[in-house]
Amino acid sequence: MNLKKFLDQISNDEIVLPNFQREMEWKPDNQKQLIASFLTKLPIGSFLLLEGNKDEYVSKEICFKNKQVTPKNEKCYYLLDGQQRISTLKNCLFDFYQNLDGWGNIYDSLYYNLKIRWFLRVIPNSNEEDILGWRKLRFPALDLIEPEQILPFITYLRIYKTKTDNWYNPGYLPNRVSGADPIDVRNQEIAKEAANMGLIPLYSVYANNANQPLHKETLRNIARERLEALKNAFFSRESGYMKESFYLGGEEYCIYDLLREKRPEQDLKKMIENKEKDRIAECFQELSSEWMASFNKYIDSLMEDELHTIELPEGQMHRAISIFESINRGGTPLSTFDLIVAKAARAQKSPTIIDIIKKHLNDGFTLSDALTSNLLGIGSNYKTWEPLGFGVLEEDRLANTLKDQYLNMLSIMVNFKTGPVEGITPEYIRRNKILELSPEQIYNNTSNVIKALLRAFAFLHYRCGVVNLKNVPYELMIIPIAYALQSDKNWKQGSKLAKIEYWYWSSIFGGAYRAAQNERCIRDLRNIKDWLDKGNNPFNKLYDNMFEEHGYSDFQVLLLKDREHELKKPLHNSLLQYVLSKQPKDLLPSYSGDVRLSAWDIASQKVFQINGEQIDLSPEEHHIIPLTSATKVKESTKKIRKSKDHILNSPLNKTLITRTANNYLSSLTPNEYFNRLDELNIWDHYIPKNAFRKQENENDYEYYERALQARFEEIRKNVKEELDDLKDI
Asked: What is the pLDDT of residues 369-402, one digit of tens each?
């Protein structure tokens, strides 16, 4: 069937999306590639449709997150493959916001990556190929060019709900004209604004009830402007007035080449000799009209392009999962999560698994008193936690880390919620075992799995200095925490949380997850449960090994001196997170007030008011020994930053502070900086003040190494002292 018929059937709910389908995940760059192929009439792949009864599956409308639909007819088609492509094309060619009222509700229900308007940029830059024939008003054969050629001329503008002053915003409404249709007035203004930018709106191409679609009105404005420019240049006295050649925009044009398809060269010569301005102007007008006609004809023809569809009969509906897996083997990147969501849909229940998960993420989450009891400044405002601030969604889609650990926890909790944990093996967090779960097992356990994961996320957020889910040093460490915290007893008892925190830091700094993470994760799950239930600490060896693990966390690696072992990014980040977990004061002068840094305040984008100045808590990595102290040996700070093994880039020389503090400290010379250390809250950052003063007999490197070793010892001492306290709570 052709594209128009396909989109018609979607609009009439004759083609729907089964709720087990994945979300719309393509980002604008992916969409742009498809649109380039579409505009140049290259094949865009097959669409897999399954015929079925309208109540076979809970269904939703294509392009929308939560808009469930029930097909009007008894029979319908379920789209199994091609959602990303057809959603891209529909959003590109169709205006979801045709009515002025209620557009905000439509905006909220569309996927994030579809909240954009697509345009063709007609006017090339001076150094660009004139793909659309604007310079000479001569439309080319776009179906003969390569998609890469038109790609730079495809652009989008993102819609923001509150920015209704933007002419491409659905809520844009210019001054009303008495007696005029407000939609007509708006479209005329939009066409003018778009033409001024040389942009053809593509979102009116699939329009059933528009007398003059927006793209055609805009094209007419662009053509009119270009026509006038060409005519004025040709008739200009500065161009010699009706000479064979004239200049426009620094480019030379020949009238015979420009109008060769309108009149023979001999006729044009006579018109010029006789100064027949009106007749030549008529030729220019024909040139403009034909360019518009060819342009519009080509755009209209896109809706008639045939799409390749594979239509499976109703009898094969039961093979949906097998078909999905077959597509996956064929190259379509369906993840284990997609397949689990698809399998759950066979239970024919509503809401979907994704809906259930998102509801938990959007609802407020109650923290236990035990979790926050030892934190500074925690009051009633922090009894309820909003997981969305922790990055569990990325552009309205479930974060990949959340999906992965949901699957792992689902498999473990289904099989071992009450059974002996000794039977849990790494096999249970592998794809094949996860895909053995039944639809009922998936549905019946999802809420408890998400609840356990959210408790783990809150633990990492409030106890471990992790600001965002993507900052978790080792993702599989989430599983032992979540498994332990599914128990209300563990969640609400401070001594249990303290032991989990002991395990966390000893594992991080003792190198437990540097290798064989799957096996380590499952072993830790069993060992933590044994410790919490029976009181036997199995992690003493890790505690002893903290900051001593050769090639991982020893001083030589942290100082970037070990040429055989590279410092691991998770360890680098964990050092910064440990300091942040202690809620250190910002490195502002003490007289500036008490600004404390915490993962939760940073995540909530809290702003402090100090002496009339707003301090944004967004953290930056601060070099304790300034990079400028090394520039006297002819190294620029930029060069030092890029050097992975420069001693000043050691995590021992870094801590997190606000941009305000960083700017303040960066404005000081090295001498001023060290002279003002007394004024700063450096102890909270485990910075031994005296060690960071250079001695007279030291060269630079000796000073750096001595100062950073002093901080290494300070951090190690404090971590061990804290963990000693934690295990005995």
From this structure: 999 888 876 654 567 899 999 999 988 889 999 9
- Separation of alpha carbons 286 and 290, rounded Å: 6
529 and 618 fall within a common domain: no
**Quick one: 511 and 584 in the same domain?**
no
Q: What whole-number distance in Å separates Cα of residue 330 and Cα of residue 2? A: 25
Same structural domain for residues 372 and 517?
yes
Residues 398 and 492 in one domain: yes
Residue with tokens 């909003």: 386
The answer for residues whose C-beta is within 8 angstroms of residue 127's C-beta and 6 or more apart is none
Claim to verify: residue 463 and residue 596 sit in the same structural domain: no
**Burial classification of residue 41, based on how many CB atoms lie within 10 Å of its CB (0-12 exposed, 13-18 middle, 19 or more buried):** middle
CB 405 within 8 A of CB 479: yes
| CA dist list (Å): 510 to 548, 573, 677, 720 | 7, 15, 32, 11
Enumerate the β-bridge partners of residue 408.
Answer: none
Q: What share of the chain is helix, strand, coil (3-state, %, to 5)?
A: 55, 10, 35
Position 345 in a domain: yes
Tell me: do 419 and 482 sit in the same domain: yes
For residues 349 and 478, membership in a common domain is answered with yes
Q: How many domains does the chain have?
A: 2
Residue 479 exposure: Cα atoms within 13 Å on the Cβ side: 32
Per-residue DSSP letter, 254: E
On whether residue 253 sits in a domain, the answer given is no
Mean pLDDT over each residue of the chain, to the nearest integer: 88
**In the numeric block, which tokens belong to residue 232?**
């004025």
Helix (H, G, I), strand (E, B) or coil at 386: coil
Residue 351 pLDDT > 90: no
Distance CA 527, CA 544 (A): 17
Q: Is the pLDDT assigned to residue 208 strictly greater than 60?
A: no
For residues 310-314, average pLDDT: 83
Q: Is residue 321 part of a domain?
A: no
Q: In 114-254, which ranges are continuous DSSP H helix? A: 147-150, 182-196, 214-235
Query: pLDDT, tens digit, for every residue of 120-175?
Result: 999 998 878 899 999 999 999 888 888 989 999 999 999 998 898 899 999 888 87
Taking Cα atoms as reference points, which of 602, 559, 598 lies closest to residue 581?
Answer: 598
Rounded CA-CA distance 606/617 in Å is: 6
- 497 with 586, same domain: the answer is no
Beta strands 245-248 and 251-254, pairing class: antiparallel
- Give percent of the chain with pLDDT exceeding 90: 54
Radius of gyration of the chain (CA): 33
- What per-residue confidence (pLDDT) applies to 418? 62
Residue range(s) defining the domain that contains residue 496? 340-534
Over residues 531-551, the mean pLDDT reads 92
Q: Which pLDDT does position 380 carry in this prediction?
A: 47
Domain assignment present for 183: no
Query: What is the token pair recorded at 292?
Result: 């518009």
Confidence of residue 552 (pLDDT cuts 50, 70, 90): very high
Ramachandran bin of 551, using left for φ above 0, alpha for ψ from -120 to 50, beta for the remaining angles: left
CB 24 within 8 A of CB 114: yes
- Of the residues 505, 534, 563, the one at which a domain ends: 534
326: number of Cβ within 10 Å? 11
Paired sense of beta strands 607-610 and 613-616, if any = antiparallel
